[in-house]
Amino acid sequence: MRIELEIWRQNGPHEDGHFEHHRVDDATPEMSLLELLDRLNDQIVEQGGEPVVFESDCREGVCGSCGFVVNGTPHGPVPHTPACRQHLRAFPGVTRFRLEPFRSAAFPVIRDLAVDRSGLDALIRAGGTVNVMTGTAPDADAIPQPHQEAEQALDFAACIGCGACVAACPNGSAMLFAGAELVHLAKMPQGHQQRGRRARQMVEALDEHFGPCSLYGECARVCPAGIPLSAVAAVNRERLRATFRGKAKDN
Amino acid sequence: MTDIATADTGTSDRNPQRPEDRPAADYTIGEPLDGHVPPGDPLTAWQRRQDQYKLVNPANRRKLTVIVVGTGLAGAGAAATLGQLGYHVECFSFHDSPRRAHSVAAQGGINAARARKVDGDSLIRFVTDTVKGGDYRGREADAVRLGTESVRVIDHMYAIGAPFAREYGGELATRSFGGVQVSRTYYTRGQTGQQLEVACAQALLEQVSAGTVTMHTRTEMLDLVVADGRAQGIVTRDLLSGRIATWTGHAVVLCTGGYGSVYHWSTLAMNSNATATWRAHRRGAYFASPCFVQFHPTALPVSSRWQSKTTLMSESLRNDGRIWVPSRAGDDRPANDIPEGERDYYLERRYPAFGNLTPRDVASRNARSQIDSGHGVGPLHNSVYLDFRDAIARLGRSTIAERYGNLFEMYTDATGEDPYRVPMRIAPGAHFTMGGLWVDYDQMTTIPGLFVGGEASNNYHGANRLGANSLLSASVDGWFTLPRSVPNYLAKLVGSPLLPVDSPESTEAMDAVRGRIDRLLAVGGQHRPEWFHRRLGDILYDHCGVSRDRTGLLEGLDQVRALRAEFWSDVKVVGDGDRLNQELEKAGRVADFIELGETMLLDALDRRESAGAHFRTEYSTDQGEARRDDDHWRSVSAWQTTPQGDHVRHSEPLDFSLIKLQVRDYR
Questions:
Q1: Which of B57-71 are b and which e, b meaning 16 or more Cβ less than 10 Å from the residue's Cβ?
Q2: What are the pLDDT digits (tens) for B422-472?
């Protein structure tokens, strides 16, 4: 099948970018969007050009490396699916793609479709951790966790850190990412000890690195890990909880 | 020779070994190696070794710098723990975030010898399964350490935020994995690796906040600096600016993963590579058992040229899925139209005791021989069925969905088929590498001060790794072994200055890296690095794959050597070296893969026996099962490449005092 592509090319963070038109004549329905780009890059190099830079690693949807905006939607037409798992067969009617990097002030473009998402790690550093010295943890069977609570923690811990939520948000907010982290760790017995402190620090870092949340809900619509919108509400809930309990309490 | 007891019943003291000392091709045999395992009872070896380890005064620790490369379970664990202990840690990753290391993609679970259930599990049982599963080509005492520390690994991972599956009573849930008959695998749905990796990366970032670890992302190690016979630094390339830099430390720890992607089509990530370990090898670290590569029996088959990889479907699926092929070769009917009587559940038929849960090497070999004999299914007849029909009928769709939901979704995404309705199609794909940089019991290589952890090292899994033992070995190395053995080495360096970054050795290594990059950019040939990688993969799958023989290996050797020459005269690397250039990154990695491929072929040629994943058709029983030769090959082979490029094979003899040498029999 023939695919037409408009792809954002930008040589570096401080250079101007532009859309470049390409055509792939021998695309197949089995190809993922990334495999389509692999094919295209082969063609570009054959014609003496430089390949389109895009990031990817595991190509099975867990590492969170890949992602760009496809026809206006982060990752592509199939909901809740990272770009590496978006296969052409799933949207046979679409033969024209406009590919852009994740658009957000928090994610500066590095080159072509690759962006700098280190702001997400800044959020983790601010509070997305549990402080445990190696070797000192108590027996994990001695702290039972109800089946359902473990499953709920997992629902939020499923985040792959791709940043699509930020790219989808008109404000460039990372509330869904932060909320997923806060809910996940709040449901873990050992994460409890730092629950209030974590919420305070995380909210502070959110304000510093990302835009505010206006509850558009675009983030949850594109999240490849299916993090529910309730994660956004959880940020506010955890913040309020921490405020009411006061700074003297870490948990 | 005839008075020697047979391999089946012999133990080390009754069965003296005469290591094979005749080369099989153009390489030489070097001095034997000593693994420095504490003598005596392997069960107490680890405690005794810890008691002997030298300690470093807390006040002196911050004056000692440790370089850690890689942020998977092993690298993140080593960096975070050494940081907690007070050492100055510099940690490197080519990813944009530590969380993306390839441990993240492991699915099924992590073993632990906690033995809480009354299913007969115990530490000894764990060691037996690991050593026997590895076909007696790994160190017994190391497997004991793996089992001993496994208990605390689960506690620690849970504490730092990994939500494990829980029973309704709140206790940790476990499941069974291939090669064992007890239930000791802890898991979180089909995303155990993801949960452990994210938890480990977060623990690492906590140390970054605490100021004990400095994290260098998007920075790739391209060489090792050896001075005074010690590893004292690394040379890196900043992937964004192209800047080449030297970093020096009192010790260097490599946790850079395996080399399975040498096969091009594998279950590994696109960026997984062997450059860090191979460059260390070229600086003098021996490379052990490169031919011990595990082919995962439940990978997706290759169905088109542009397919990125042979995506892994977790082995845990074999708990409930039944593997079969049509009894009649070339039967092209849709799976559901083939009646029960015309299906060959070949694993259940041949191995009634283990059935679909035979170890990976056995499952892969059997799948390969079914495919090769014309029973393969799918459009290219290159796969076998993994069928959930009976399990869904027995347990209900919702139970199956809870156990494997995300794997089923992943399969549907990748293939467009619904495994709830039609069987999955699977095929053996290159996966885990048991080989790696040779390390002694303290995880130190033949270069003093160079330590290795996780899949990048060689010591636990012998010739075949059991499912769910890889997350475990990476975790044990990173969190519990290296933080004890590295300080023992550092203790004697208290007060010694760091090697200057402009020392002659550093400068020489930087010049070497720059020279290599310039050479790659200057070739100006016809084909992209990717093209050479694909060809290398084809050669290795054909000649050094699930089964090997002498003629094929010799052919493969010629082809790889020719490919290497062709690469350096015909590779085309577009762009330049002073900014993000993925073609250049790939080119360097492929160049190293080609050299590694040659050593893999030599090792496979050299090892004149079948053991675990290394199956030489010349060395098999009448039933087609692997035939080990414990008299000549009860040893780890460790390869040295001289600066001139000559190959020397060293041997580390293996002793088994705890586990009796037996023929692996899963029937």
A1: eeebbebbbbbbbbb
A2: 999 999 999 999 999 999 999 999 999 999 999 999 999 999 999 899 999
Q: Which residue has the higher pLDDT, A72 or B9?
A: A72
Considering only residues A95 and B178, tell me which one the structure prediction assigns the higher pLDDT: A95
CA angle, B256 then B257 then B262, to 5°? 115
Question: Do the Cβ atoms of A53 and B582 come within 8 Å?
Answer: yes
Give domain status of residue A153, yes or no. yes
Q: Domain B1-104+195-292+434-667, what fold?
A: FAD/NAD(P)-binding domain (3.50.50)
Rounded to 5 degrees, φ, ψ at A99 are: -105, 125
The answer, yes or no, to whether residue B5 has pLDDT greater than 70, is no
Distance from CA of A217 to the nearest CA of B (A): 24
Nearest Cα to Cα of residue A105 among A177, A199, A210, A185: A210
Q: B116-159: per-residue pLDDT in tens?
A: 999 999 999 999 999 999 999 999 999 999 999 999 999 999 99
Domain end residue (candidates: A81, A111, A141):
A111
A83 and A141 inside one domain: no
Interface residue of B71, B73, B81, B96 to substitute, partner A, most A CBs within 10 Å: B96
Domain that holds residue A50: 3-111
**Do the domain assignments include residue A250?**
no
d(CA B310, CA B293): 15
A96 and A151 both lie in a single domain: no
For chain A, the domain total comes to 2
The pair of structure tokens assigned to A41 is 């890059």
For B267-313, the pLDDT digits (tens) are 999 999 999 999 999 999 999 999 999 999 999 999 889 999 999 88
Region B296-429: CATH code: 3.90.700.10
| C-beta atoms of B309 and A35 within 8 A | no
Q: State how far residue B531 is from chain A, nearest Cα, in angstroms.
A: 9
